Amino acid sequence: MSEARIGVYVCHCGSNIAGTVDVAAVAKWAEDLPNVVVSRDYKFMCSSPGQEMIETDIKELGLTRVVVASCSPHLHEPTFRGACSRAGLNPYLFEMANIREQDSWVTTDQVEATKKAMSLVAAAVSRVAYQQPLESLFVPIDPNVLVVGGGVAGIQATLEIADSGRHVYLVEREPSIGGHMAQLDKTFPTLDCSACILTPKMTNAANHQNVTLFTWSEVEKVEGYVGNFTVTIRKRARYIDEPLCTGCGVCQEKCPKKVIDDVFEAGIGYRKAVYIPFPQAVPNTPVIDRDNCIFFEKGTCKACEKFCPTGAIKFDQEDEIITLKVGNIILATGYDLFDARRIPQYGYGRLENVFSSLEFERLTNAAGPTLGRVVLRDGVTVPKSVGIIHCVGSRDKNYNNYCSSICCMQSLKFAHMVKERTGAEVYEFYIDIRTPAKAYDEFYQKVLGEGTHFIRGRVAEVTDAARQPGEEGKLIIQAEDTLIGKQRRIPVDMVILSSGLEARADAKEVAIKFGISCSADEWFIEKHPKLDPVATMTDGVFVAGACQGPKDIPASVAQGSAAAARVMSLIGQGEVEIEAATAIVNEETCVGCQECIPSCPYGSIEFLEDKKKAHIIEALCKGCGTCVGTCLSKSITLRHFTDEQLVNEMIGAMQSMKLFEAQDLVIVE
Amino acid sequence: MPDNGAGKSFYERVAAATPGGDVLMKCLQCGTCGGSCPSGADMDSTPRQLFAMISAGMEDEVLSSNTPWYCVSCYYCTVRCPQEIPITMIMYTLKRMALARGHYHKDAHINWSKSFTNFVELNGRSFELGAMTLFGLHNPFAIVKQGGLGVQMITKGRMPPVPERIRNMPQLTAILNEAKRIAEEEEV
Amino acid sequence: MTDRLPALQEVIGKLLPDVDGVLGLKVGPAGIVSPHLFVKDLADELASLAIWPKEPLPGTLKIIQKAHPDAKLAIVCRGCEERGIVEMAKHYQIDLANVTLIGLQCTQEEAEFCRCAKPFTVHAQTTIGTPIAGVPDTLTDEFAALSREEKLAFWKEEFLHCIKCYGCRNICPQCFCNVCTLEDETWVETGRLPMPQPAMYHLIRSMHMTAKCVACRECEETCPAGIPMAIQFRLIARDVKEMFNYETGAEIDQPPPQLLVLEEGEYERTGLPH
Amino acid sequence: MVEPKIIGFLCNWCSYRGADTAGMARMKYPPNVKIIRVPCSGRISPELVLRSFREGADGVMVLGCHIGDCHYGTGNHRTAKRMPVLKKLLEYNGIEPERLCVDWVSAAEGEKFATLIREFTETIKALPPFVEVIK
Amino acid sequence: MSQSTGHYGFYPGCSMGATARSYLQSTEAICKALGLTLKEVDDWNCCGASEYISMNSVAAYSLIARNLSLAAQEGHTDLVAPCNMCFLNLHKVDGYMEKYPKINQQVGRALAAGGLSYKAGSVHVRHLLDIVVEDVGIDAVTAKITRPLKGLRVAPYYGCLLTRPDSRYSPEYPTHLDDLLEALGATVVEFPLKTQCCGGHMTQIKEATAYDMIRRILQNAAEDQADAIVTICPMCQLNLDAFQPQVNGMFKTKFHLPVLYFTQMMGVAFGLSNKELGIGSEITSSKTAFRKIGQEEPEEQKSLKRDKNALPMPRL
């Protein structure tokens, strides 16, 4: 690589690097490295003058390679690649040495930090000489979009995109869209009726000319890459002919089989084996629940079929497999409620008047099983005292370590509604009250003013074992009132557990399906927690709403809109640059053993039967290099991460380390 | 706040003397421990309050509290603590620290523990009757009230009149003496 | 041995009208045994058929098949050669559909010579001789029991004699690459003797033998320095069996483990951190 | 004791970001490890590890995403199959298998990364000097 | 685990020779019936209960570790403790030695002074109940029943230390004793306080505190109409049984709840004699309770207003 003319640029990053690393010494030292033509240090390399310095050198000194020693490439690699491009140098002829995150910030000793910076620069210089220019491939973006999950975040994203004139496929697992929001009665802090604000959006989404709705459906497979995904959807059999069904509800009325509704009614109400989950459901088409239908169980009944006025019942219907082409995907798959049965001392599932938060939502809902009456499990008795327990399953290393973010406000709302509906005494047991968003703390103050008792202390247990007079027949909430420093036992009629939110039980599977990652708590991981909260590491796949972390309605809606904006921006660009650092097979040396084919996570390697050689479909290759690690004859090369490049990077680092071992480094001040 | 010779804060010493005690600083002050404690009503400060006092360096107040002495070692606090703080073990640490510095709450049942331990160190086995009697010397009131029970236990064959002793007492004594020497080393 | 030879001649004689050729061993004029393709017209050549010393026939089979992809062939194979053929088929180097396997069961002496755990065929359509039980590989066991320092000293001594003649690679039926990593300067320094980093050569080769070595011991046999390199391959084979439940060449349908994603319970057996 | 020379091959998506996270949190660790970024731990062929030893590395680290979190889905499954075998092989050649560290570090695990580096550097320091088998 | 061998090291603990003699008798009786071999660790010493550790932790750990060391020396991989306190202490010290190098080293040094050593994790400490439920299995127990405990309402009382901390069973709501008693034919009452503390050593130190804790448990069992409380720990038995008259005196209550060991219940169901099982040594007599066996139980009255309005319950 004698023709390489390398420029080295060492950044001070203010005092971030220069405070620990002798940047001038590093730049001076780099001058003597092979092929280095110029080596400079500068206060802020990423600033305009810094970039211009590089551009000028490329042009005036005829540099053919550039090394910048500064921060992590995850931060500024695109910046400096851009500078090279502007000066006419192929961006892949640029290499970065990370002397901030991996050196100045983590090393205490200044001499050691300087030596490490030198080694990292030497490694980059050694590598860059072997780098090759690469041309990016551009592929057109399919303007159709897939939205997975029809809760409020998914609906919002769908409407935004559909309104812009692009087509959206909205896939929902349940028979109706609406998500958890459809289950609620009131929303905090404004106490608007949830159905009143959500239903119009649901109808809008379903009737929109640019939306195709798939309910009772799930995504089975995702192939392809940004701009060009092929998605396979399983549309489960409803056993109802959708075009024929008018949604009159007679089937549901006549069905003799009553089932506890664990989904929409949160287990506190019933539905039939053929059912529309709730009156405002969209679409207004029932499904037959195969597992509970008498006909599917015993072969007789067919009451629904007998009474259906349009003959829409189709017991022989089968699942449909649908293949779609989309350019972008938004995941808005929502959350699961923490199962309070996991905390036995709170008695949920054992003590009948302990309710989960979603059960209570359904109790207060005018369309719920009690038509909005707040009553005990017997269905009649109005409670005279109610305890609300915060942080159930949240902020607890035994369960979920995070704050579920919505429970405080939800509990305050519950307190207000209990007061409003029953006039009962309400006790809120909390660790901290967190009301940070707009108009939230005002709501807290309002509830305080309503006479709710606030007891600061995490509840130890809920029991029906009376200890002293006045406790018989009650649920006793035992906690330390930490503001008094005394143990208290509060007898109440009803306990509401403000359960936390959890990632969907199948979040991990879904993440793998869509090629994104999950955090330890199984929430989907965004590209950047602050600056890119709705994108993921996989181009073309975005997240919105509670699947990314606990979130209330306003935040979910905002994310739905944000994800839609990101997608529309991509569509607007028309085409997308795909990974230039792809793998390529050397057909001359390939022996056709086909080991590489199953090793590729993307199925991007095909076997050319005529030549008996492997071949990589460039557009499908994501550049992971797993095939390279597999190929024994080294017949596959991963561009930009070739063996030559990596080995020389390693040699650069090793040689400098050996050098420092042999002689002490003298830093020139 | 006064530090000991090693220059370690009170919190650091409590944490170091308790297996897994280094998470003490993560106490959320949620009160689950105090709420769960079956004898919590009798404590002058709840465990949570002690933790706040420990982090505030209030060594005298903490070590003269009756709280550790009311701990019945049921471990409810430990298993329920959302921060996985080994609260029961911290109570043991506080008891030892209180004993070591020589003055402790009047409710401390130090004589019972001492009588019990004495018999173990003497025979290798515990001896209820002996411990009760010995304890009774310090606490004659108890022996009057529970005397009838003792008689009943003896007649039912549930309280042998003489202690059992293990064969290899020298070995046990050697182990315990060495352990105490190690523990002393630790104190310095 | 004497009773197996006529039996084999008879089997080949019967097979020959139906196949285009039978690959076996032949004694040449100077008494040298070499691979030979017995074809229809020369059925009387069978008189010169040999069965010992063994030569690695699967590699020859691959060459013939590549030149004549449609030819119907038969091959005389021992247990190890059968495993080699199975393994090569998994890597698309041999097309099993066009091959008839004539299984030659090894004798006790032969098995002991090879320290062979499986001196018999399992897939062959026809078999000659009586299968015998495997022989314990005491050499490998003894090596495994050495301390790390002893192992190091062991190889240091052995590798000192390596002249990097590539004989072990050339004879190996599983070394079917067109170009070889061992000749690439990037990995193995070439052109100097004694070898500058002898372990580099052998480590890479051992790594490439993972889930591939069929324990035929041809490499050791051919090595002019007599390096017992199969010890490493055999130990790795035991690890692969333990970690990924894979036995090289045993099952025709089981893909090699390195091609598959981790299965339930496999990760736990790798010894990697949790 | 001479400072050990260590090469770390880190996957771009989890482990390299984990190293960045450690940096952003200003966690301190010894400077011995020089990191080489690869797209996926599946890219790391055993030859790369061996070549680093040949070049004089006293230890090599191979860090990837946790199993199940691979940016490429299953790239690290190959790592989990290859590297244990390589470790065994080192052992059979009389080389301490501890010289090869294979572990998983997520982008969030800055602390784990720093701890790993500290521990691995200590481990290598504690080993007898690397003999001239590969070097 | 030695499920199949049925051989275990046995650490009886001090109470078994004294206050809990009937526990030892009934344990021996049911082991014989089930073919279980418990081999007493030779020359074991006291575990220090909850007292020693408040005096000196290193000495307390070392005291306990001597037993682990002896058990390991005798070749036991499973060491059975029938007492919750002993179980916790042995289990805990083994775990500490494994987890905390400093403790491991300190205890190691102390043991060495007595010519002993112990490698953490080599002895698996288990409670007798765990052996019966997990290794012997409910089915094998059922097979031995000749006199099912039909008609007897029992409150399963676990106490604290078996399930807390670090247990494989739920610290709040374990059910394995429930399952065993049900298999014996008894009616197991819903007993929310089943893992509440019995007061431990408080009976000796602060009577008022202890008696109130005992009262809560007795009251809960009485409210659930239990005929007897079944325990798995000598300390629990002692506190609930022997102090029952004192509790009645202090709170003006009339509890009469015999407190029996689960091994005694098994023995009764196996048709063994009261003498073999040490029944009769309890302070609160069990005569009336045992008379109920075989009697038809009155139909349980569900007091709940379960009418058409009732809402479904979440299922456990």
Overall description:
Chain A is an alpha/beta fold. Chain A folds into five domains: 6-134 and 644-663, Rossmann fold (3-Layer(aba) Sandwich); 145-236 and 320-334 and 504-573, FAD/NAD(P)-binding domain; 250-307, no CATH class; 338-502, 3-Layer(bba) Sandwich (FAD/NAD(P)-binding domain), CATH 3.50.50.60; 579-639, 2-Layer Sandwich (Alpha-Beta Plaits), CATH 3.30.70.20. Chain A has a five-stranded parallel β-sheet with strand order 10-7-6-18-29, with helices on one face. Chain B folds into two domains: 10-100, Fumarate Reductase Iron-sulfur Protein, Chain B, domain 2; 109-187, no CATH class. The longest helix of chain B has 19 residues, at 169-187. Chain B starts with 9 loop residues before the first helix and ends with a helix. By secondary structure, chain D is α/β, with parallel strands linked by helices. Chain D contains four helices and four strands. Chain D has helices at residues 15-24, 46-55, 75-92, 110-126, and strands at 6-11, 33-38, 59-64, 100-104. In chain D, strands 2-1-3-4 form a four-stranded parallel β-sheet, sandwiched between helices. In chain D, α1 (15-24) crosses α4 (110-126). The longest helix of chain D has 18 residues, at 75-92. The model of chain D has no long low-confidence stretch (mean pLDDT 91). Chain E folds into two domains: 7-129, Glutathione S-transferase Yfyf (Class Pi), Chain A, domain 2; 137-302, Rossmann fold (3-Layer(aba) Sandwich). Helices cover 45% and strands 9% of the residues of chain E. Chain E contains 14 helices and eight strands. Chain E starts with 6 loop residues before the first strand and ends in a 25-residue tail after the last helix. Chains A and D meet through α4, α5, α17 and α18 of A and α1, β2, α2 and α3 of D.
